[in-house]
Amino acid sequence: MVSPIIDAARIVKDYGSARALHGVSLQVGAGEFVALVGPSGCGKTTLLKILAGFEEPTDGRLEIEGKDMRGVPAASRPTRMVFQKLALFPHKTVAENIGFPLKLQKVPVAETKDRVRGMLDLMHLRPDYLQRYPAQLSGGEQQRVALARALVSRPGVLLLDEPMSALDAKLKKSLQAELKKLHRELGTSFVLVTHDLEEAMMLADRICVMRGGHVVQVGTPADIYYRPANMFVAGFIGETNFLPVAAVLTASGVQVTSPLTPGASAEIATEHVAPSLSEKGTALLVRPESIRIVRNDAKAGEWTLEGVVEEYFIKGSSTQYRIRVPGLEAAVIVDLAGSIVLPARVGETVRIGFDPTQAFLLSE
Ligand SMILES: Nc1ncnc2c1ncn2[C@@H]1O[C@H](COP(=O)(O)OP(=O)(O)OP(=O)(O)O)[C@@H](O)[C@H]1O
């Protein structure tokens, strides 16, 4: 990142005696789309509010567009925020709502009109909506008006606090697609707080995973999915299987063995090992789509386990199996490509196999 538009360093936030953020650092590049994800109460909204200027950090440094933001009020920052709950003015028309930030900036009336029209087009809202009131619009349309109002003053950074969580699944999908397109077209930096991990994977250039007021990992969706920092991140995004292993460092990687596959060992290359690997709870992360049911001979190097099919779900493009393997606490999840002929039935004993060198080695 040459020069980040947002540079937050060691941000601490205390509410009374409770610490919501424990020294969070995050940089956002110009034009980048970053998603903040993490369990409820981990500090996502607090961080967003600090970026917006609605909360002051207790400690740490925040620069936006190269300027120190200490004491700079929200309205004077190059940021705009869209909230989860609609914050439209109910007694103002759509045109007045969208044009409101420009009115505050004393932008001439004719220019305001043009820019409001432009935003309406960008948001695919019909021109006759301009004279409507928020209550006369659907939830999705209202959220589009809120986005238009946030973007009309051309902020450098748009901050989005779960803007789609109140919408039904179909509306959400269409607004997600529009948000991605909008981001590409405008070149504005977006920071999105979301509970929806699929949404984060789909929209963001980088994902920041938070837990208990700390940043656990920042990376591309591929990094987060394929190279998670630890079991928490791995379990947070996508479905996971963890196979406990003993690990020994070698010249070119890590040698692993598992009590569940006696006699078998595998060399895991460094690029398949979490950088922060510790000795506590070392395990191989095997994604459900990387496991197969072994009917005949195992392939060279493949590790196999025997288990009983506990349940299966037809998901459409794939069928998901839950297989109970003695010695493993959680059932093994296996995703097999969809087929009209089911490869195994409930209660059947099956052998499952995977290539350990393609798994990812991590720890608690
Ligand atoms: N105004 C406040 N006063 C006191 N505590 C607060 C305040 N705002 C947030 N907190 C606390 O700070 C912590 C972080 O809250 P925050 O809203 O940032 O979490 P979040 O990750 O956005 O959660 P969610 O996903 O549920 O919205 C929580 O423990 C919360 O209770």
From TrEMBL:
GO terms for biological process: quaternary ammonium group transport. It comes from the Bacteria. Transmembrane segments: none annotated. SMART domains: AAA. GO terms for molecular function: ATP binding; ATP hydrolysis activity; transmembrane transporter activity. GO terms for cellular component: ATP-binding cassette (ABC) transporter complex. Keywords: ATP-binding, Nucleotide-binding, Transport. Residues 6-237 form the ABC transporter domain. Belongs to the ABC transporter superfamily. This is ABC-type Fe3+/spermidine/putrescine transport system ATPase subunit.
